[in-house]
Structure formats: structure tokens, C-alpha cells
Amino acid sequence: TAAEPLYKRVLLKCSGEALMGAQGFGIDVTVADRIASDIAEVARLGVQVGVVVGGGNIFRGVAVASKGGDRVTGDHMGMLATVINGLALATSLRKLGIDTEVLSAISMPEICQSFSQRAALHLFNRGKVVIFAGGTGNPFFTTDSAAALRAAEIGAEAILKGTQVDGIYSADPKLDPHATRFDQITHAEVLNKGLAVMDVAAVALARENKIPIIVFSIHEKGEFAKIILGGGRATIVRD
Ligand code: UDP
């Protein structure tokens, strides 16, 4: 018999950079389509999938602040960037026949629904993939923190953090040949060792709410579904 999914509801964190592919800026539709196909695969297993999208491929608030501009305005621009990415990913999912809704932390009713926990749960119960855009809706936060926050709000059983590499390493494996990879690690160890997985606020919030974080390569086609079915290559953060 086929393997059963380990989870009923999960939260995928997809960075903005994952959507830009090799071009260095913006959205590569081919790459967005590929990531959408991975999400579709998991949705078709009957798993309820929420996705928090980043915005770093378009804009980061610090880019304004570092040139003497107002950080809050920069962060507003960054949050708007996540909405653009959310709409792009929703478009890719709908092309695959996956019913998808975008909920934004910042109200823009002409474009998408506004986030509320009730709206999200209602959409999951109707079998939709839900994309959470606009980050937390607050400056000085990141979409990693938004991922931990939304995961807690929707009662996700795990946060799937799609990254450039296949898990958490003791150092950046692209720079340090001696970097070792963890199969499993606790939230506390991630924080104490200062491992760059998600920002501190995100890891702390996940720990507080006892939500495991599964770190895997977003570039590995089909990996998301493999992990949901108990296989695949990833580091799991749990206490
Ligand atoms: N941002 C914010 N509040 C949030 C989430 C995001 O102000 O709750 C802004 C911030 O300026 C950030 C930008 O949106 O730099 C893009 O998000 P992030 O850097 O987390 O995207 P990613 O690195 O995942 O692509």
C-alpha cells in the first residue's frame, strides 16, 4: 500500500529568492511553476498546505534603511513585494488546477482577501491551498517570523522551510568544507549555536508552540512530497 502522509496540515516557507531562479531579480515563472508543482503534489495527497512567501527577490526593507531612508517605509515595500510573489505562486498553482487563495496581512480587497485565522481555516476546510502574503503585516519582522506565526495560528503540525541546501549545517557548506550536517537538532540548540536556519524570533515562536521545523532543499523537485510521506533528505528541528 502507498505511504500515508505524516501530516494533515503544514506550513511551507518559500523565500522570495527561491522564485527568482538564476536571473538574480524578480520572478522566473518557470521556477514558480516548478515550485507550484511540488506544492500541488502535496495538496493532491490530501494535505492542507499553507504557504508563506518571502519578498527578498524584489525588495528588502534594509535596502532602504542602509541608504539613509526610513526603515518602516522600506519594510512596507518589502511586504508589498511578498504580495506580488504570492499572486505569482497562486497563478502557477491555478494553472495546475489547484484551488488557491491568497490572504494578505495588509488589506487590499481589490486584489486578495485579508488574513484572518477564521478565513484561513475556512479555506483549508474547503480544500484550498492558502498563500499567506504580506508577512506579519508589521515592519521589523521577517517572513520567517510570519511563517512561525501563521503556523501557530492555523495549527500546522510542521513548518517546512525550503532553503538553498538540504538541511542545517554547522557552518555554511558552500564556504566551509568541514561543515557537518545535522539530521535532527532541537530548537534550543539552533538558538544556542546561532545556526542560520530562520531568524531567532521565528525559531523561538516555533519552540514555544512545539512546532517542528523541517529544513530541506526547495530546489530538489519532488522533495516536499517525499518528506510529507516520511522520506526525503532534511534536518528536523524538534524538542
Ligand atoms: N517584511 C516586514 N515584515 C514582515 C515580513 C516581511 O517588514 O512581517 C519586509 C522586510 O522588509 C523584508 C521584506 O518584507 O526584508 C521581504 O521579506 P523577507 O526578507 O523575509 O523575504 P525572504 O528573505 O524570505 O525572501
Automatic annotation (TrEMBL):
Coiled coil: none annotated. Its main location: cytoplasm. It comes from the Bacteria. GO terms for cellular component: cytosol. This is Uridylate kinase. Residues 8-217 form the Aspartate/glutamate/uridylate kinase domain. GO terms for biological process: 'de novo' CTP biosynthetic process; UDP biosynthetic process. Residues 21-26 are annotated as: Involved in allosteric activation by GTP. Catalyzes the reversible phosphorylation of UMP to UDP. It comes from Hoeflea marina. Allosterically activated by GTP. Inhibited by UTP. It is an enzyme of class 2 (transferase). InterPro entries: AceGlu_kinase-like_sf, Asp/Glu/Uridylate_kinase, Uridylate_kinase, Uridylate_kinase_bac. ATP binds at residues 13-16, 56, 60, 163-164, 169, 172. Its EC number is 2.7.4.22. GO terms for molecular function: ATP binding; UMP kinase activity. Belongs to the UMP kinase family. It holds the Pfam family AA_kinase. Homohexamer. CDD domains: AAK_UMPK-PyrH-Ec. UMP binds at residues 55, 75, 136-143. Pathway: Pyrimidine metabolism; CTP biosynthesis via de novo pathway; UDP from UMP (UMPK route): step 1/1. It is found in: Cytoplasm.
